[in-house]
Write a structure and sequence with these properties.
Length: about 300
C-alpha cells in the first residue's frame, strides 16, 4: 500500500501531473479555438444553440476542465493529510465549475435592456454573484482552519492507533485514484459516443456538459466521507469532531444535489452548502478553544 501511495499520491507525482495538465490545458485551448474557427467558416456544422462554439471566449471552458481534473487529484492528495483541507478542496472544485460555466455562457449573452427578463442573462448574473460569494466564503473557511495541536488527552492516545487511522485514509485515497480514472473515462466515452451518433454537434449533446463526471464524482465523495466519519471513531469520540465530520457530509450531499437542479435553485444549494460548512467549522473551533482552556 505504501508503494502505491508513493506512486500515485507523492509530491513528485503531484508536480509531474501539474506539468502534464498545464500542457494539456494549453493544447486543448488551441484546439478549441481552431474548432470555433472551423464552425465560423462553415467547415463544421453545430446546433444554433450550442454556446461552446459561438465565441472564442468559450474556448476557455476547455482548459478549465483540465484544471478541474488537477483539482480533483489534489482533493485525493490532501485527503489523508487534513479533513478540513480535503473539504476546502471540494469547495474549490465547485467554485471552478461555476467559473467554467460562466465562460461557457459568455457567448450566449444577449446584452439588451431586458437583461432581467432573459433567462440566460439572468442566470449569468446569478453565477457572477455566486462566484464572488463562495470565493469569499472559502477564504473565511481556510482562514479558520486551525493547526492541530496535541492536548494532554491526545498525547495519551496510542501512536499506533493514530498511524492506523492515517493508513486507513491512505488506503481509501489510493483506492479512489483508479475509481476516479474509471468514472472519468466512462463519462468521457459516453459523451463522445452521444456526439458521434448525432448528425451534428447539437444542443442535446452539450446540455449537461457541465455535470459530466462531477455528478458521479460527488456521489463517490459522499460514500468516502461516510467511511472517513466511521473510521474517525477509531481515533476520537469527541462530540464536536463527530459533529464537524457529519456536517461536512451534509455539505457534500448539498453539493451533489446541486447537480440535479439548474437555475437559481442550483446556486442556492451551492451557496448554502459552503455556508453550512463554514458555520460547522467556526462552531467546531469554538469547541476546540473551550477544551484547550479546560486543559
Amino acid at each position: 500500500m505504501s508503494y502505491l501511495f508513493d506512486k500515485f499520491l507523492s509530491s513528485h507525482t503531484k508536480e509531474r501531473l501539474e506539468r502534464i495538465i498545464l500542457v494539456l490545458a494549453i493544447v486543448s485551448f488551441l484546439i478549441h479555438l481552431l474548432l470555433i474557427y472551423f464552425v465560423q467558416i462553415g467547415f463544421l456544422s453545430v446546433g444554433s444553440e450550442v454556446a461552446l462554439f459561438k465565441n472564442p471566449i468559450a474556448a476557455i471552458y476547455t482548459p478549465f476542465s483540465f484544471i478541474l481534473i488537477y483539482e480533483v487529484y489534489l482533493l485525493v492528495f490532501y485527503m489523508p493529510r487534513s479533513v478540513t483541507t480535503y473539504v476546502s478542496k471540494q469547495y474549490e472544485i465547485i467554485t471552478l465549475i461555476v467559473i467554467r460555466r460562466l465562460f461557457k455562457d459568455f457567448s450566449d449573452l444577449e446584452l439588451t435592456r431586458d437583461w432581467l427578463e432573459i433567462k440566460g442573462d439572468l442566470q449569468f448574473t446569478y453565477d457572477i454573484v455566486l462566484a464572488i460569494l463562495i470565493f469569499f466564503i472559502i477564504f473565511l473557511f481556510k482562514k479558520n482552519i486551525l493547526k492541530q495541536s496535541l492536548t494532554e488527552k491526545d498525547k495519551n492516545l496510542s501512536k499506533l492507533n493514530f498511524e492506523y487511522f492515517i493508513n486507513l485514509k491512505k488506503l481509501i485515497a489510493v483506492t479512489l485514484v483508479p475509481v476516479i480514472v474509471i468514472i472519468a473515462s466512462y463519462s468521457l466515452i459516453g459523451w463522445i459516443s452521444e456526439i458521434a451518433w448525432s448528425d451534428n454537434l447539437n444542443l442535446g449533446s452539450f446540455v449537461k456538459i457541465n455535470n459530466i463526471f462531477f455528478e458521479e464524482f460527488f456521489t463517490i465523495l459522499i460514500i468516502v466521507d461516510v467511511l472517513l466519519l466511521l473510521i474517525s471513531f477509531f481515533y476520537t469520540d469527541s462530540f464536536h469532531k463527530v459533529i464537524r465530520n457529519s456536517g461536512f457530509i451534509i455539505s457534500t450531499i448539498l453539493l451533489r444535489l446541486s447537480f440535479s437542479t439548474d437555475g437559481l435553485l442550483n446556486n442556492i444549494l451551492i451557496l448554502s452548502s459552503i455556508v453550512f460548512g463554514l458555520l460547522i467549522l467556526l462552531i467546531h473551533n469554538k469547541y476546540e478553544s473551550i477544551e484547550v482552556n479546560e486543559e
